[in-house]
Amino acid sequence: xxxRTLERYPPPIRVVIPGQVxxxxxxDASHSPVFQQIEGLAVDEGISFVDFKATLATFACRFFTxxxxxxxxxxxxxxxxxxxxxxxRCQICKGVGCATCKQTGWMEILGSGMVHxxxxxxxxxxxxxxxxxxxxxxxxxxx
Length: 143
Known about the structure:
The protein has three helices and six strands.
């Protein structure tokens, strides 16, 4: 939906889109070829990596609790740059380690990144003028 949004509407763009995702992933204990996902996209002049991280950290604190701790880990998604998966301190064990967080004290909740300039250009958006970020969350989800 992010591409369709970029092709249909001019910036500034800020959307949150729920939907069903279909992929060619093999089914296993942590992956499904069909799942629900919520994704977001923000594209405008001057959006920076700081805006990206601050927006997602604020979301986590509002979704969970105001004192929720977050961290970003590097990852790879081909349509993004400055990519990171965002984890929150486990809400079950408060970071001590439990079966839910696989004894790490952290739970991955979303994949995210700055939109690659080539994606913007391919959608008719001037990547010299506009930047943006995208994220996706859901079981086995990535943006």
